[in-house]
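Appendix B. One record, verbatim.
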Amino acid sequence: YLQISIDPYHIEIWPGYITSIRQHERDILLCTEITHKVMRTDTLYTILRQLTVETKDYQKAFKTEVIGSIVLTDYNNKTYRITDVDFTSSPLSTFSLKDTKVSFAEYFKSRYNLIITDSSQPMLISKPTNKHIRGGQEEFISLIPEFTRATGITDHMRTNIRFMKSMSDHTRLNPEMRLQRLRNFNERLNSSAKSTEVLKEWNMKLDNDLLKIPARILPCEKILLGHGVRYICDEKANWTREFRNCSMFCNAEISRWQVILPSRCCRETQLFVQMCIKVARNMSLVLATPKYIEMDDDRNNSYTTAVEMATSEDPQILMIVIQQPNEEKYSVIKKKCCIDRPVASQVVTMKMIAPTSEKSAGLMSIATKVVIQMNAKLRGIPWMIDLPLKGLMTIGFDVCHSSKDKNTSYSALVATMDVRSSSRYFSAVSKHQKFQELSNDIILHFTFALRAYRNEHGSLPERILFYRDGVGDGQLHQVVNTELNHLRIKAQEIYEAAGKHEIGPRLAFIVVSKRLNTRYFFSNNNPPPGTVVDDVITLPERYDFFIVSQSVRQGTVSPTSYNVIYDTMGLTPDRIQMLTYKMTHMYYNYTGTCRVPAVCQYAHKLAYLVAESIHCPPSQLHERNLYFL
């Protein structure tokens, strides 16, 4: 397939395939997935020249822009990860080549017949990967910006709705198109002389069609709402429409709340707040008329001053209105509300809440989502699932890397306090450096979560279901041999100290993986939510299964892989699968299922908030609430 140009945005999309061959449950299988590489037609030299004009400190801006990004060099069609920019070097700098000194400019002219137009540009540095080292390349690799193209898309591009729509038209293939391309690829492999020769050498032969695998569909989940209302999910696992005119399962009374806004946004904000009050009334939530704090301007200092003023009156929650999405402003507000003056906060943008002729019908939907979030942040329970187990603590753990500092990451743990009987959660965040082991963070947070549970119920949980997200295949060995072993030992100590020598902790530790190349289909369509596969395409050395828990409007749905690496809960595999699927219904940011169990999504949301906006652990006064929704 030829590359696709998206002209106005200087972007090219290169279609391709990802393949892997490995022993699965019964046979050796070839896993094939369609992928797309996003290439920018602009070189890094173009980006450098642009930053030189637009910014005062162009060197710092250029480093921020390119370090950590993947680039492609057209002259050898290879990709590299940029680890540094050397402004002290240039194409006129020399290096050793066969016992002689030669400049980069001379080398590229003789080797690739490429002439450098700007001899003062800096050199890009790429640390050799393990693959490079195995090939004998142990020294750092120097690249010239003029001959280097960036791959991927920037955060600024992601905010461009038209651009993302153009991208998705080419990259989000529906099941029928995906199946056809996979079959075409199969035909090419079976007909190509080179591929058949390789297969013959290994005494292997490819099947002529995709593999048929056994699967089953879990029962539709019952969503419990207020006044005893039960809604059985439909085939899309979504209850947005049915939820709007029903009472929430448990409501927090919001009698003291304030709205901070620029004075020029007054009229639109008041209309939106009135709609929120109307929606809340329909859902049997008491939402009083708020106090408004108007600001003369929308500078960052004005928001911090307004939050200081508002928190002096001890509000339950603040609604803060900003003109348009602004990363720096959002960061300032969240730092103030999460660290300096701990208070629940709901940030909304004028773009989201201002009524227009195009989206007037969707404004009520936005108001509904905002009211649900406000209720959840104040320990209300928007909805509940039919959960048969008592005394269950579910824990989610995830890691998020900071975009500001490539060597810093934040890990977050979020735990339920038995959702059947408590609306409280426990959450904690830790900062750690690159390549640092996470076992100490996990043990510390786990101990505090058990203490919080015992303070809530007077006893330790009967069962603990731990979902560990953010683990690549290369880290699995470390997770099993370090994190899990420390976790088991600590849990045993805590339960023995509590006098539970005989029972001990009934614990299951499950590694969650979302970045998969595995796809499965049902009658040339996406499989319905709740489709479980635990045979044929699973791995023989693992106790693993796949679940499709979402319904998607566009493209092909992706399953989530669950690898149970430790289990003393005493439940059958069917029960573990059913319990995992139930947990995907408990994410209060969306009236539908999410791709992973809700505690994993909460942990990701919290780690992302800290990594992107506040850059240090939040106040402990927040640790029992879902303030990060």
